[in-house]
Structures are given as structure tokens and as C-alpha cells.
Amino acid sequence: MAGRMATAPNHALQSWTLQQRGPSLMVSPPPGLSDFFCNFRTKTARSHRRGNRPSPAKQRRDAQRSSAYKPMGTVLASAIKSILVGREGVLNDIYTACSSACSTAGNVRGRHRDLYPMPLLGSWPEDVRVPGTCVEAALSVANACILSLNTMWCDFKVARVVPPRNRPTAPQQEVHNHVVNRTARLLSRLSQHQDQGFPWCGMFNRFEQAQQPRYEELRGDAVDLPQKAATCDPLVHLPSGLREAVSHPATIFPDQADGFPSDMGSEQATDRREYIALVVRELQCGKLRLRRHVRGIAPVFAAQKAEGRQRKIWNGSRLSQLALRPPKPERLASPSVFLDMHAQPTEALFYSKRDAETFFDVLRVPLELQTWFGQELCSAGKWTLLELSSLVDDLSGSVLTGDSRLHPVHAVWPMGFSWSCAVAQSTTLSVVAAAGISQEQVLSMDYPPPDDQTELCLVATDDTVFVHRDKERGQCTLDKFDAAMAAASIPRKVSKDISLSETITALGCEITSRPHMAEPAVAKLFTCAGSLLDVLDKGVASPAALNGLLGLLQWFCLLQRPVFATFDQVYEFARRTPQSKPQKLPAKVKQELAVVFGLLPLLSVGLDKPFYEELLACDAAPEFGFGVSAAACNESTLLSVSRLAERRGDYVRLRQEPGEETEQTRIGTPHRLKVSKKAFRTIVSARAGYKAHSGVLEAHGLLLTLKWLARSRRKHHKKVVILVDAKAVLGAAAKGRTSSPSLRGVIRAVAAHSLASDLLVKLIYIPSESNPADAPSRGKGRLHRRVRRQQRE
């Protein structure tokens, strides 16, 4: 019986039948068991503790997986909507204000002369082409850019955004066109870099991971070394002051005559056998020598390079802290120098690039300094005592034994030492001069650009970039430079040579000819965009990781300094401690990062902007108000004056007329212009409606000048030369930002107008007694009839 009962279920299960019900099949229980199965209560699924909503971790995983397969435009538009302008978006308040302004723009009558607030785009222009799947993303990115400009203009205060009084004016439409074109260029470049998907989720993790030591296990045969090291003597190339300093250790280490503590190299964490193998290779090529006694020791690590290679790191940070502060590298290039180039839209520019191979490994350090650049002790290995004796520089007649303690010391300037960069930069400049290029042709923010820009040069330690206007002359210059490198015994990395090309990547930026543009390298721009979205979505970051992202953004902001006006609270967050602990981002920090994301399309800068045909001057006086003056000038005069922008110690004077105020003696170098005060006409002479500090009033005077320029679309996309007599305002506006709370809002408004109008503002200092806008700012002087008519209206 028990056996039959045990087999009954198996027999019954074989009697299940399939019945057709509609398009699907239904399984029916066998006869006699239907009541049992119908009365059987199945377990209901236990409700998730979050209901139907998945956990945040699962949401992020799903978004990361889907973003790799969805088109880039779809992913980008969705991210902007949810992170920036959605109901819980970072910029939702300002977006709501701007959206309401846009919806009511056609129902309000009246004249609206100011550029701000800027209405958003309702649709993407049909005549501007973008990749097929990026139309929705293009509209989202363009509106995010306009939203960021409005946020900068109102100093992150939503209450200042009021509906405009009519439809977009002609200047506002010009700004829309500029934003649309820059957005289309940005998306086109990103699509070429990443043809499918936009995996922004988790992209900020690379900055979090970068703050943790990621040194590899040292492999002695994987480190790149020159065939022969210490072939170039920098003392032959250095200027006299730097040559004198590096020739005497007491100059660099004035307080360390007896050397450093013996435990400075105790951080060594490499495989001993691999370390010895690398030391042997470095001794063979001449990069290292041996000494029994050293005064300074630093640990050695390995960092990853491309194709499985490694870079040896001699960590001389502690030695650098104890050494004297090194001089600033001479004429060191940065992205800002591209803005000093002046090109015509129709002319062609040709770019060339030369890179020195293992540059620091060929720069021979003076014999007196070698004892300060030591490493951990090493054994004899396979070398005989006789062979080792030829490599030891401090035997002094002594004989080596098997128990001798030997320290490897650098025979070249180590890359991890603070003075090495200044030595390498000056050496490259000497080679450039040997090729027939004068120092004035080497662009740097420390010196005015040359009047003659037939051929220019940029030097960044071991990278040298040339800008040519004539191919034949350019090829001749390259031949001379290659010969000068060979004469200085500096090896050239031929695989990285670029000769007479119309596009080039240099200093992390892509430079193109026709159109003449300077913009961030697309790979790094892709990283910036994705990392900003990721950190805004997470809302959590460690101060050190955010500082890493901030460093990359600031490097590209050197192309558009007004973007610096966005940063304020993010600096305070980056200084928090502990540096490596993730912390919640404050709302103001998230707003600043969101605005920077919106301004990414405007980081592309045109290098062929023409000059606005008038020289402008602005001023402010507490007893009356503001004054703005203008004088017609030719392009050569404007170009000559603009060379003095942002240069310390230089200022301008106007042509002195009889009866004018006596000029006071000023510190610096004066430059006399051929223009007199009488040549200036009054543009603005307005009474101030409030009382404020003189510096704040001066900043408002500069803002009024840019407002006047922005009101005419004809004045957009120009280089503008403005004379200012307030050094504090000039410095803040030229730098792009200020820490002064009273000036910050005005500087942000100045930045918003210059970015929207695509103006490259050149500010030059002029003493107050020479400023032609001084009289209008005090209510003196006659107004132009057009100005009087505008004020009446």
C-alpha cells in the first residue's frame, strides 16, 4: 500500500494535459486532483522593503549598463533632465524661473535693451546640423549653457531672474546662435570620440582612485632609459643667475650643510631584486653613479606607462621642501598664451611640434650636487670590485671591499626635484635660441607677445611647439632646431614629431587652422563632462578627488578665464579635512559644478576675432556715478595696446595736451599713446543710484562698458581693449574671479556678458589723471547727441 501511494503521484503527474486557450497553452491537472490544486494557496511574493522602487545602487548599475548601449544623445539628454533641471535637479529653481520667462516673453510689451535674463531655446534650429541621434541632447546642452549664463549673471540668486519684456532681441538672438554653434561643435567632437553610448556613471571614480597610491611593483627591465644618459651639460645653456645657483649646493640647501636625516629613504617599498636590476641598467647607461657617503636620500617607486612600460619615480618631495624655493621656469607656456595669437580668418597657420626623449635623463647634474640625490643602498650584484671601483666617485684612494656600503646617486637632474623643471625649461629655451628664434617670439604670460607674429614658439619643458605662417620658412626653422638639439646632445622622440600641420594637440588643447580655434582635447573634455554628471548625481565626493577634477577644469578655464568666476564654494570644499574621506556636497558646491558643466561648450575659443574699432575707457566716482568713453583707433594701435594686457608693471599714458592735469609719477613702465583725451567721446555718464565702496563702483563701471557692447550684435565676437584705472578691479576681471564678497557678484556679471557676447576683453591700466572717462564719471563733459537720446528713451 505504501508503495502504491508512493508511486501514485508519479503516475498522476504523467496524466497532465495541455489545453489550447487562445494564443497560449494552459496546463490542466490530472483527473481527481483538480480540487487539490485549486484549493492550494500559492505563496505571494513578499513586498520589497522599498516597494516597487529599486535601491539606489541598483539604479546606478542599471543606468551604467544602459548608457553603454543607448545613443549618446539620448543618454546625455536624460542625464541633463534628471540631474540639472528635473524636479530635484541642481538648477531646477533657476530653470523654472527662466522657463516662465520664456513662456511669457511674447505677451509683454516694452523695450528690453539688456542682454539678461536670457530666454531659453524653444526648439533646435533646423539649419544647424548635429549628429542624427543628438538633436534632443543638443537642445538640452544649449539650454543648460544659457541657464548657466543666467545663473552667473544673477550671482546664483534666483530672485533676480524676472521675465523679459519681449521676445528675444537681436543681441539675444546672436547669443543663441553662438551657443547653438558651440554646442553643435561640442557634440560633433564627442560623437567622433565616443560613437555609441555615454557611460558617465562611475566616471568620477577615476579621480577617487587617483588619490590612492597606485604604484606598481617595480620591474627592472620595464623602465624606459636612454641609450646614454647625462649627455647634455645644462650649465652651458643656463642664464648666469640660474647657472651660479645650481653650481653651488649651499645656494640650494643653505640650511643643510651636514646633509639630511638618514631615514629619508626609509619609505622604499619595491622588490629588492628588481631594484638592483634597475640600478644595474642605470649604471650601465650613466644615469647613476655610486658613492659611499651621501647627504640626501629619496625612495624610488614605479608608475604605469602605456604599453606595459614603467616610469621610475624618484620621490624627492621631502628634499624639495627642505631646499630653497626654486625660480619660476622662464617663459613657461600655458593654454592662455594661445589667446595672444592674432590670426586672420582667411590665412593659414601651420603647427609643428618636437619632443625630447627622456629629457631629464640626459641633463647632467653638477658633480657637487650628486651627493644630494641618493637612493637606497645596493649590493655589488654580479659586478666585480674592480668594475664597481670605476663607478664610485668618492673613493679618495681607498679600496673597496665586499662589505663596502654603496649608495646610487643621480648623475642627471631627477624629475622629482623642485629645481629640475627650471633647469630643463632654460635648457630648451637655449636650444630654441640656437635655432634662430628670439626670446620675444616665445609666447608666455609673463611677457608681452611680439608685434611680429610671422613665427611663434611655445615651450613647455621638453615639448616645443612652433606656429608658422610660411611653410618654407617653417621647414627651415625645424631643420635648424633639429640640428640644435643634436648639437646639444638631446635625443629627439621622432615618433612624436609633427611638422607643418594645420591641426595639433599641445598643452592638453586641440588647435586648428581655418577655422582658427583653441579648445580642450576631446578625450579630456569627455572625462570632464562625464565626471561632472557623475559627481552631481552621487552628491558625495572626497575633497582630494574633487580637487583633482577641479585641477583639470581649471587648466581648460585658462582658455576662457571668465569661467573662473563660477568657482567659490568649491574651493572651500576642496580644502576640507580629512582629504580622502567622502563627504556630502553642499548645495552651493553642486550649483557651481552644474554651471561649469553648462559652460563646457563655451570653452572653445576663436583665435581670429577682429578688434572692435574703438579704444574704450571706463571709470567711476563716488560723488557722481559712472563714465564710459570711446575713441576711434586703427587696428595696429589696438594691437599694440592689447599687448600690454594683464602684464604687471606696464601702463599707458595718453598724448599730453596743454592745460591738462599734471601727470604723477607711477611705478612701472609707461607706454605713450598717440591718442589724446579730446579724441574720446562720452558713451555713458550716469549717476549712481546707490552708495558703495569705490572698488565696487569701479567694477560696475566695467560692467556698464560690457553691457553697452552687448546691446549691439555688431559688437559681438570681437577683441575689446578697455582702459581701467582701478588695479583691484583690473586684476579680478583679468584673473576671472575674486575672493571679495562685495566684488564677486559684479565680476560674475562681467564674466556672463563677455562669455555670452564672445568677447575677448583686454584690460590695460591707465592712471586716473590720464583716464578720459574720469570727467564723465564726475558728471562733467558734454554727452554725444546719440547718448542723450538713448538716456531720454
Oligomer type: single chain
What class would the helix/strand composition place it in?
A: alpha+beta
> What is the CATH level 1 assignment of the largest domain?
Alpha Beta
Count helical runs: 25
Strand order, main sheet: write it out.
21-18-17-22-23
User: What is the CATH H-level superfamily of the largest domain?
Assistant: HIV Type 1 Reverse Transcriptase, subunit A, domain 1
CATH topology of the largest domain: HIV Type 1 Reverse Transcriptase, Chain A, domain 1
Radius of gyration over alpha carbons?
34 Å
Helicity level: 25-40%
Mass-distribution shape = globular
Beta strand count? 23
Which keywords apply here?
Alpha-Beta Plaits, alpha+beta, 793 residues, 4-stranded antiparallel sheet, HIV Type 1 Reverse Transcriptase, Chain A, domain 1, single chain, disordered N terminus
Task: Describe the model.
This protein is of the alpha+beta class and 793 residues long. It folds into 5 domains: 70-100 and 114-197, no CATH class; 220-328 and 361-419, HIV Type 1 Reverse Transcriptase, Chain A, domain 1 (Roll); 335-359 and 426-519, 2-Layer Sandwich (Alpha-Beta Plaits), CATH 3.30.70.270; 522-606, no CATH class; 614-778, Ribonuclease H-like superfamily/Ribonuclease H (Nucleotidyltransferase, domain 5), CATH 3.30.420. 36% of the residues lie in helices and 14% in strands. The chain is built from 25 helices and 23 strands. The strands form 8 sheets. The chain has a 5-stranded mixed β-sheet, with helices on both faces. A 4-stranded antiparallel β-sheet has the order 8-9-6-10, covered by helices on one side. Strands 11-12-13-16 form a 4-stranded antiparallel β-sheet. Helix 4 (72-85) packs parallel to helix 6 (135-153) and helix 6 (135-153) crosses helix 19. The model is unreliable at 1-25, 40-45 and 103-109 (pLDDT under 50).
